[in-house]
Design brief:
It is built from seven helices and eight strands. It is α/β, with parallel strands linked by helices and 229 residues long.
């Protein structure tokens, strides 16, 4: 397992601007981008970027040869940021506001990229504003579960999902759900980073829930690849 300091990022790095309140691309973004670069995008393939934020992953996919890129986010500011960043990088993407669950029933993709909110939060936490970019319920799976369940509907035959999230949010649960949907799913990349401000402020909750060991102050991230046969 490599640390943040040891990892060398190989994907093309898009130029990015960010509106206030939009999730700033961080280690999880670039870990997923590295997995995308290592895996490759089918030439001319259709790509969906879920929870796009600044559009970093959508633009990376376009740089790697995607033919059509759709980026979705519930944040209006994120959608505007993604459109602006695509223009700055000379790439064409279709950024739309809303949930992937609201996509037309006929929508299907060769590649789906997902860096959703996955941070466990104490009961009663009010999730609004920029906190929507990371807070995901007591178990961190408020969006992970619907993403995993929707893959058979959104992936084309021989298409694949690349999903990044923390081990705090139940890697085995994601693998079990994806495999239960008929997909071939495995962890393809791992990384470790020190706690940032959000998790540092929740250590008592995380220890009480058994999500971290006493005194643990680092977070392990994984990228899961799930293929539709």
């Amino acid at each position: 397992m490599t640390t943040f300091e040891e990892r060398i990022l190989t994907p093309p790095a898009p130029r990015l601007l960010r509106s206030p309140g939009v999730y700033r691309p961080q280690y999880d973004t670039w870990l997923l981008a590295e997995a995308v670069a290592a895996t490759g995008i089918p030439a001319g393939g259709r790509v969906l970027d879920v929870c796009t934020g600044t559009g970093a992953l959508a633009i990376t996919a376009a740089m790697l040869g995607a033919g059509e890129v759709t980026a979705v986010d519930v944040s209006r500011r994120a959608v505007l940021s993604a459109r602006l960043n695509a223009w700055l990088n000379g790439r064409r993407i279709r950024a739309r506001r809303g949930s992937m669950l609201a996509l037309p029933a006929t929508a299907s993709f060769d590649v789906i990229l997902a860096n959703p909110p996955y941070v466990p939060c104490p009961p009663g936490t009010v999730t609004r504003g920029r906190r929507r970019a990371w807070d995901a319920g007591v178990d961190g799976r408020a969006l992970l579960d619907p993403i995993c369940r929707s893959m058979p509907l959104l992936l084309r035959p021989q298409g694949f999902l690349l999903l990044v999230h923390s081990v705090l949010s139940g890697v085995d649960t994601s693998l079990r759900q994806l495999r239960g949907c008929g997909l071939n799913a495995d962890v393809v990349l791992r990384g470790r980073i020190p706690f940032g401000p959000v998790l540092s402020g929740r250590t008592v909750f995380l220890e009480r829930e058994g999500l971290i060991a006493a005194g643990q102050r680092h977070e392990d991230l994984v990228v899961i690849r799930a293929d539709r046969p």
